[in-house]
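Pipeline run #58 for the internal structure catalog. This entry was flagged by the ingest filter as a single-chain record with no existing model, so it goes straight to prediction. Upstream metadata was stripped on purpose; only the residue string is passed forward. Reviewer on rotation: M.T. Logging verbosity set to normal.
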Amino acid sequence: MTHTKSNSRMELLLEKIAFYRKKKNYEMELIKWQYQNTKQSLQPINLLKNSFLERIATTNPKKNIMNIGIALATNFLSNRIRSNPSNNPIKNIIASVLKFLKNK
């Protein structure tokens, strides 16, 4: 009887060893995959791309485009009015307001 007990224990031990070897290999593959993924995500171009995509995802794109359009229009008008100096007080006030909005 002791011979069969030792054989069954040996078989159980060999099965456990095989199981843990497979588990170790699987976990090693996961670690390699995670390392490659982290390495790739930390490349400068991917950092810029990810931060840009996060910025778009967290804000309302229509609102963002509208703000950019308003800023460009304000900048254009401000530069246009300042490049043609005038004695007209309304133009001077508008130029001052646009300059204030541009710097804000």
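catalog note: The chain has two domains: 1-58, 60-104.
catalog note: The two ends are 90 Å apart (CA to CA).
status: ready for reviewer M.T.
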